[in-house]
Amino acid sequence: MSFSSPTVHAGPLPLLDLEVLRTFVAIAERGSFTRAAREVSRTPSALSMQIKRLEETLGQRLFVREARQVRLTPEGEVLLGYARRLLKLNEEAVTRFLAPPVEGTVRFGTPDDQGSRILPEVLAQFARTHPAVQVEVVVGGSVEMQRQLEAGELDLILMTAGTPGQKGDQGEVVHTEPLVWAGRDGGVAAWRSPLPVALASQGWPWRGRALSALDTIGRAYRIAYTSEHWAGQEAAMLADIAVAPFPVSLVKPPLRQLPREVGLPDLGDYQVVLVRREGAGEASEALASQVIRAFHELRR
Asked: pTM here?
């Protein structure tokens, strides 16, 4: 199948079929017609025909077919962004009119590192789909938010797995990512002895993990900076007065993940869990679904 250069389209523009876009997104995310076919309960040949018609409609090749996988062309990558937005908008519209109206108040607690990443999008989308629900947001440490949840002061919280006092089966894991050592790019803090470390306050899982890892390898260190929030650790790193354990997704220039030659121990992954108060209600469950979806999209 060959495609000519784009030309001005005469007459009404064609409409994109949402089911075909759903198929397109499934193939792009799975990298395989066969795996995508299982997800959408269709045959690979049926998916192939859908994509062929989509390519003909747009006059562009969307996938490069290789031996065991498919990958997006540059045009396919552009379409993927549009497709995801169109599918999300369709979901919002259908939910707005067909889902039973939900009213009430949700009291939602989040640590600042997670809130800064997903909260703006979650609140904006939730306001569109559940306009009658009021959301009260509390930003704080995991230990204090867990206490508030148990006291009935919060309905829903995000917290780092492994927080002291957390029950082993408490919460649904919604996000996993590496915890790494970070510092200022070109800085000298990582080479000082003893190693200056910026840590979260007592009770944060990152703190205990980092100190235990340093003790295990016998690395001399001193706690140079302590903060209730990740922004405080970031400030210490930007000033090049300390290094810190940090989620890899939060390491942005002029910070960088410290290289192996610095000799710091591996910190493994950390997990974020979503914990619901028992009997919190329908509005809380609706917001929980939005939060889970936001983390899923964050991993893409």
From this structure: 0.65
